[in-house]
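Hmm, what's this shape?
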Amino acid sequence: MRVMTEPVTTSDSRPIYTTSGGRSGQAFVGRDRLNVPLRPPQSRSEGADPEELFAAGYASCFLSALQSVARRDGVTVGTPQARAHVGLHAETTTTT
């Protein structure tokens, strides 16, 4: 069975994203802007797992917000970088 999500569209009807095949499928952004083969986490096959794509998007948005605030406040930040770590597994923590 192959499941295809319905693409979200912009006001001019261009698709924003499309995915097919789950973690062993493909992810597409826009019209030919990004085409990424998807793979399960810890797989050695080519491509990215969905968590990696989420982390990249989150880090990009964080840096964009940082640069926006820096510009507003007249602060020079150079070329900032962000490292995002994403895990979708429950962690058990204890406090004493």
User: Anything to note?
Assistant: The helical segments are 50-72. The two ends are 48 Å apart (CA to CA). The chain has one helix and three strands. The mean pLDDT is 78.
